[in-house]
């Protein structure tokens, strides 16, 4: 297993799968499948890991992205902003096979960001008077009521990037960037699947979005499965 903060973090899919186990909390980048790391997800499906808690924007599609883990019933819980593009997730929720915690998209992004920067919780008025407030503490500040939203972290974060150097500095491609930079910060162990791996010093420092200090392992992508969604 590669050591944390190594100067060369390039590894193989087997190294990535070695840190993902039954019952793991897995956070993933992506929006509607775009930006999900497909090689990593296929590896997790093939390994047969089960009882996962998935944290991400959505559940993609049944045959694309993170939705494949839903299709194969490898998740016990999902924390997401919506599941509408994956009817299997909705059916499993109705059948009691999948616990779903909904979080408004902006709130979810901030919960992930908070986890990445070490903020334990924050206040927001989004969700007051709706199902979102169920079971959450309310705080009155300056005569206005807020929900206390807790930060989110994961055992493992998986992200997709356009390019990385061997230390793990990441560059993303246009809208495939989406939630990936936030997710990369919030994992105890972060794995980046990348389209291209270059030597140290080859990346333009002004284009780097995720500093390599947040990344523990890099693997070469075998290609995406969400190109048609993107187009």
From TrEMBL:
UniProt entry keywords in alphabetical sequence: Transferase
Entries under PROSITE patterns matching the protein: COA_TRANSF_1
UniProt key word Transferase: yes
Key word Transferase present: yes
Gene Ontology MF term list: CoA-transferase activity
InterPro entries, per database record: 3-oxoacid_CoA-transf_A, CoA_trans_fam_I, CoA_transf_BS, NagB/RpiA_transferase-like
Domain of life per record: Bacteria
PANTHER family with a match to the protein in the record: ACETATE COA-TRANSFERASE SUBUNIT ALPHA, KETOACID-COENZYME A TRANSFERASE
Family membership: Belongs to the 3-oxoacid CoA-transferase subunit A family.
Name this protein carries in UniProt: CoA transferase subunit A
Organism: Alkalihalophilus sp. As8PL
């Amino acid at each position: 297993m590669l050591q944390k903060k190594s100067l060369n973090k390039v590894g193989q899919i087997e190294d990535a799968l070695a840190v993902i186990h039954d019952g793991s909390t897995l956070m993933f980048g992506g929006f509607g499948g775009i930006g999900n790391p497909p090689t990593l997800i296929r590896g997790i499906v093939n390994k047969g890991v089960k009882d996962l808690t998935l944290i991400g924007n959505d559940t993609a599609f049944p045959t694309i992205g993170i939705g494949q883990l839903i299709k194969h019933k490898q998740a016990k819980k999902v924390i997401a902003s919506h599941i509408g593009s994956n009817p299997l997730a909705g059916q499993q929720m109705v059948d009691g096979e999948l616990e779903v915690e909904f979080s408004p998209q902006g709130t979810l992004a901030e919960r992930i960001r908070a986890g990445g920067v070490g903020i334990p919780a924050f206040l927001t008025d989004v969700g007051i008077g709706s199902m979102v407030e169920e079971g959450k503490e309310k705080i009155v500040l300056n005569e206005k009521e807020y929900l206390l939203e807790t930060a989110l972290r994961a055992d493992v974060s998986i992200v997709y990037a356009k390019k990385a150097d061997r230390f793990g500095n990441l560059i993303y491609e246009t809208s495939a960037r989406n939630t990936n930079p936030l997710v990369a910060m919030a994992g105890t162990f972060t794995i980046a699947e990348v389209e291209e791996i270059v030597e140290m010093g080859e990346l333009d420092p002004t284009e780097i979005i995720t500093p390599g200090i947040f990344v523990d392992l890099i693997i070469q992508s075998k290609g995406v499965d969400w190109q048609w969604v993107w187009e």
